[in-house]
Amino acid sequence: MNVVLIGSAGSGKTSIVAEFEKCFISPISTSGMLREYAATKKSGSEIITECMRRGIDIPRYLFEKALKYKIASIDKNSFIMDGIYGVEQLHTVLRHLKVDKYIYLEVSKKVAEDRVRKRAREDYNEEFLTNRMESFYYEIEDIKNRIGDSLHIIDASLPKETVMAKVYDILNSDQEGFTILENGLTERNKAYIVT
Questions:
Q1: d(Cα 39, Cα 43) in Å, to the nearest integer?
Q2: What does residue 182 show for φ and ψ, rounded to 5 degrees?
Q3: How many whole angstroms from its chain centre is CA 47?
Q4: Choice between 141 and 185, residue whose per-residue pLDDT is larger
Q5: Topology of 2-172 in CATH?
Q6: What DSSP character marks residue 21?
Q7: Which of 17, 22, 84, 160 is most enclosed, with most CB atoms within 10 A?
Q8: Handedness of CA 97, 98, 101, 106 (dihedral sign)
């Protein structure tokens, strides 16, 4: 199963991806993917680094290079990706990956900003926060319209346990006899894999 999590910084995407590492779904963190590509020092890496520092959108052609670099090393039939911040990134993902489920972790801008400020990460400065939040909340309606009825929306301001339960419910819908258990097993075959 291929899952894309959509949400602003501070919506809880990283926590959900960490939970699903137990299920052996290949995790793809968009920011991690971009940092990984930037570290290669390949063409455009310095632009990616500067855009990330400032919290502004990565040019589409560079996002695509980083995505291709990342997907060369993962199971493209079993991944969970976090961090789609705009329509350009969504279009790029759709061109290169088959996606089964889209989950939007909806949280107010104020709650998201408060959560990010509590993290105290050095790469989350005020310029980054302002730019990233403005960009995401400007584009979210276009993203929702592009995905349409396939988008599952979860109120991510709820407690983490409640949000995780809702994610499990979404992932278990339409699974033809498979049930993803919270310990990473599937109920059908008790194997440590989600298919």
A1: 11
A2: -65, -15
A3: 21
A4: 141
A5: Rossmann fold (3.40.50)
A6: G
A7: 84
A8: positive
- List Cβ<8 Å contacts ≥24 apart for 131-138: 131/54, 131/55, 131/56, 132/8, 132/9, 132/55, 132/85, 133/8, 133/9, 133/109, 135/55, 135/56, 135/57, 135/85, 135/86, 136/8, 136/9, 136/85, 136/86, 137/8, 137/109
Token pair recorded at residue 186: 């599937």
Task: Find how far residue 64's CA is from the centre of its chain.
Answer: 15
- DSSP state for residue 176 in the 8-state scheme: T
Instruction: Give me Rg for the CA atoms of the chain.
Output: 16
> Residue 118: what residue type?
K
**Distance from C-alpha of 112 to C-alpha of 128, rounded to nearest angstrom:** 13
Give residue-wise pLDDT tens across range 110-120: 888 888 888 76
Handedness of CA 162, 86, 124, 24 (dihedral sign): positive
Backbone angle region of 172, left / alpha / beta, with phi > 0 → left and psi within -120 to 50 → alpha: alpha
User: What is the model's pLDDT at position 57?
Assistant: 80
